[in-house]
Write a structure and sequence with these properties.
The complex is a heterotetramer, with 2 copies of chain A and 2 copies of chain B.
Chain A (H helix, E strand, L loop, with lengths): L2 H14 L12 H20 L1 H5 L8 H26 L5 H9 L17 H21 L5 H29 L3 H20 L11 H6 L7 H19 L9 E3 L4 E3 L5 H11 L3 H14 L1 H22 L1
Antiparallel strand pairs in A: 1-2
Helix pairs in contact in A: 2-4, 4-7, 6-7, 6-8, 6-10
Chain B lengths: L9 H23 L8 H29 L5 H6 L10 H4 L5 H22 L5 H29 L3 H14 L11 H8 L10 H14 L23 H15 L6
Helix pairs in contact in B: 1-2, 1-8, 2-6, 5-6, 5-7, 5-9
The chains are: A mainly alpha, B mainly alpha.
Pfam families (chains B, C): PaaA_PaaC (PF05138)
Protein name (chains B, C): Phenylacetate-CoA oxygenase subunit PaaC
InterPro entries (chains B, C): Aromatic_CoA_ox/epox, Ferritin-like, Ferritin-like_SF, PaaA_PaaC, PaaC
């Protein structure tokens, strides 16, 4: 037996025993690559996800909502930071990770390629989009890679808070004027299906699931999480007095779950492929921020260097 | 709420508090435009932090102004239902955000003034305003430190960053004169001892600024630069109208709703 | 006014007329942004000319829509007091103005469609709409000619102008699909013979466009480009909200006044 | 006697006899220079003058007003064109003239360095600013230089129309709600003194007046025109039910004119020197239009050249 195989067995044994893998531990190359792909994608999603909400910052309808929204988006930037750091423990720099996003090589969650068109979208995004994200993330708090799992614990706490805030926005609207209620229903109509798509393709179509489950990077299948999300959300929808845009939705007593209609996977793949109404705009915004910030980063680096050499001169 | 209202100069004090609130709000609105577009993730977060502090102060100040007014208005009425000519913010706050250097310089010049003002305001006979000033002063210390560090970093960074930040200074300088001139109602309040005589802050402010510019290898504009004014009397640049149209749209479109 | 109103399909016709009016208005609003900022004085004037024609058509169309609605609304109510989700304009009209090449390409692609539509609409059984179409068709001929000439000039100009205008074509192309798909109410009107079946215009439009692109040495995007939609159903890009906030601010701030 | 002196005498004789000077006629160098300065300054004023009004195009409160304003600004662009053409007959290209504006060498009317802050400003600018301009321009219809005089005839017709439109905006506002009336009064307060300053320094301080009068480039002194403008405007102000911000204003029966207060010449010179609130913004807008339009002008030139050479090839 080659030592390589020993490493691999030891690694899997640790995973099976729920012992966290740490940056300096040996890990299979494919594990590392899968993690880099997944964590960086998650980090990019936090950063790109700032844009649809940022779209309403300057138009928030009250000072309190403006402040809460700003704090929420700031949290997302913070999540981005944790995750870029977790990624760096796997041997890829933040700059490289970001360049992969800007070049289109790395992906981010497709949900952010939908436009935010009304104030109610700030409610729907918090409630449904963050809600769907949490379904995934709660499981990831126990993921096998230590730094990722620990980042997730911090993120999950804040995300639940965001979700409650989002739901509260929906609550106020759905109890408000006719126009406000209509706004809330419209937002639900537009975000419901995209939120369901956030869990990814159905298990039969999903390629990476099996290996990821074995490595405990992933702990539930896409369809399991999707069902869980629907089951949790429908009572919330009912409480708001709104309806989901799915005529096939109904409680299945036998399964103990809600049955739901066919997801439009053609739309899903279209948006993933770059055809969402905002794909171009999102990447453009990120590219412009990066390019227009280049002189600032260069200045900071040059200043740090000057300072270091001045200190050295003094020491010498 | 059981607070001490100044027995006289009430209208003047209300105008003054509105002026402070407006300046905070308009500047916060400009900082909001950076969210998601900063040059470095950490600085994106820092700008949001400052924006959040300013919004917090805005809310306290409008709430207090509404009490002084005693016309049953809310903080949101004051923020979203007043017209351009009613806004009393310093002109410097409404200037478009420009590049990161412009934003940093504007913040630095503003906070250097705020530090002096808020420190003195803590001694105000108006205890409510003094309490707001005390909280804001702590925050302003952080904003000042952050912006001063960036002025130094950009001034003493690359040739390009020095050129950019110097241009921003030269563009913004003309809007700093407003800090040190008093409107009629401010003169009334100063005479009554209700607010500090901020006209006397000019030298201390310049020294504070010069110290940082010096370390940043930047040049302070000459003393005879013409100074713009008007903001505190509601005569603004052409930028404010567009900012308000965007900021107030929801409240104008759906008057009287809860959000 | 003594005009012939269609006896049935009135609601659908009202929706359709609103869609035409909205597209004209939003595009005119974008052209207004050029006024005083054009690259050549004569072209600044030309863009205003087109804008004025579009505004004229907008007014006729809203007036007619108001008649069809019969709810005592004015053209200004329809322009300034409807929300974003009520606006039915083509998405292509709301895209930010971009550079001069972007504006020219957008206008060209829009007018090539308008020419076909307005020519056919002159035969509409709705004589009022037919009369509006007749006037607009004459104007569209001029807009088409002007924009086609500029597409050719920029396409066959310098390397830079060719690159810029080709990029604009590639960016805008995805928004042209909406010209040729029918909403429910449009299907109803087509079936009733009240409006032409514009879904059949796609080939003629492409030929018109190809001819000019060819002369301009520009490349037409491939046939399988994904096409955006939503505008006619009130689902817009994130740009429209900001445009409306600015455009409607006065009417929202001062409801019910004469100007 | 040198022939030079003969030319000069002949020239002055023509001017005295009210015969127009035409581009190919001999004219004194100083006359040519004075005209270039004056006409180009006038042309630049038309172009820069588009900006404060353009500032309200996207916010005009009705469709009719939006269209009227757009048409008005378009007329101003047209006036700019006539005047640049008149300038070209004196031997300076449009490009050179524009570059003198952008470099700050050439001036434009200082009035456009004041901001337009409300819709009522669209009324006040049309009524007062165009009104003051017309006072000057009517006299210029008989100016000694032919192309300039003819351009002025066309411009004057349109300007009177604009002035009536501006006054009509003020009329509607002053008969409207309290807020509208306040808006109208505020606009009058802000534009009244700057409009009076448009006639230039008082005669005792004005340097070029005497020579320009002799050459019939100028036909009335600054103070004459200013008095005429005030006398014409006050009844219009009264009709609106508004008041001018001048406590010294009153009718002087003896003089048959209105007396008026001291003009703040310090403000006037400050704005001329570049310290108006919009000086920087106006020049910046014009520079950006020019720079961002460079590639368009280059493309048009390159295309014209290609086309010409293709025609030549066919001919050859």
């Amino acid at each position: 037996m080659s030592p390589q195989i020993n490493f691999e067995e030891q690694f899997q044994a640790k995973v099976d025993a729920e012992i966290k893998i740490e940056p300096k531990d040996w890990m299979p190359d494919a594990y590392r690559k899968t993690l880099i792909r997944q964590i960086s994608q998650h980090a990019h999603s936090e950063i790109v996800g700032m844009l649809p909400e940022g779209n309403w910052l300057t138009r928030a309808p009250s000072l309190k909502r403006k402040a809460t929204l700003l704090a929420k988006i700031q949290d997302e930037a913070g999540h981005g930071l944790y995750l870029y750091s977790a990624c760096e423990t796997l041997g890829i720099t933040r700059l490289q990770t970001i360049e992969d996003l800007l070049s289109g090589k790395a992906k981010y969650s497709s949900i952010f390629n939908y436009p935010s068109l009304s104030w109610a979208d700030m409610g729907a995004i918090g409630w449904l989009v963050d809600g769907a994200a949490i379904m995934n993330q709660v499981a990831l708090c126990r993921t096998s890679y230590g730094p990722y799992a620990r980042a997730m614990v911090r993120i999950c706490k804040e995300e639940s808070f965001h979700q409650r805030q989002g739901y509260e926005i929906m609550m106020v609207l759905s109890k408000g004027s006719a126009a406000q209620k209509e706004m809330a229903q419209d937002a639900l109509n537009r975000w419901w299906w995209p939120a369901l798509m956030m869990f990814g393709p159905t298990d039969s179509e999903s390629s990476n699931t099996e290996q990821s489950m074995k490595w405990k990077i992933k702990r539930h299948t896409n369809d399991e999480l999707r069902q869980k999300f629907i089951d949790a959300s429908i009572p919330q929808v009912n409480y708001l007095g709104l309806t989901v845009p799915d005529k096939d939705l109904k409680w299945n007593e036998e399964r103990g779950h809600y049955d739901f209609g066919e997801i439009d996977w053609e739309e899903f793949w279209n948006v993933v492929k770059g055809n969402g109404i905002c794909n171009k705009a999102r990447l453009k915004a990120r590219r412009e921020a990066h390019e227009q910030g280049a002189w600032v980063r260069e200045a900071a680096a040059a200043y740090a260097e000057k300072r270091a050499s001045r200190v050295n001169e003094k020491v010498a | 709420m059981n607070i001490t209202l100044p027995s006289k100069n009430r209208t003047a004090m209300c105008d003054y508090v509105l002026q402070m609130a407006d300046s905070n709000l308009i500047l916060a609105q400009r900082l909001c435009e950076w969210c998601g577009h900063g040059p470095i993730l950490e600085q994106d977060i820092a700008l949001s932090n400052i924006g959040l502090d300013l919004l917090g102060a805005t809310r306290s100040l409008y709430q207090y102004a509404a009490q002084l007014q005693n016309e049953n208005k809310t903080e949101d009425d004051l923020a979203f239902l007043r017209g351009e000519r009613d806004f009393r913010n310093f002109l410097i706050c409404e200037l478009p955000k420009g590049d990161f250097g412009f934003t940093v310089v504007r913040q630095f010049l503003f906070e250097a003034y705020q530090l002096l003002l808020l420190e003195a305001l803590q001694q105000s006979s108006d205890t409510h305003l003094a309490a707001i000033a005390e909280k804001s002063h702590k925050e302003a210390l952080y904003h000042y430190k952050w912006s001063a560090e960036w002025v130094i970093r950009l001034g003493d960074g690359t040739e390009e960053s020095k050129r950019r930040v110097q241009e921003s200074i030269d563009d913004i300088w003309t809007y700093t004169g407003e800090f040190f001139i008093a409107t009629e109602w401010e003169q009334e309040l100063i005479a009554a001892g209700a607010i500090p005589d901020f006209r006397t802050f000019a030298n201390a402010w310049k020294e504070k600024v010069a110290e940082v510019f010096n370390e940043a290898t930047l040049t302070m504009p000459p003393a005879d630069v013409f100074m713009q004014k008007g903001g505190k009397n509601g005569v603004h640049t052409e930028h404010l109208g567009f900012l308000l149209a965007e900021m107030q749209y929801m409240q104008r479109q759906f008057p009287g709703e809860e959000w």
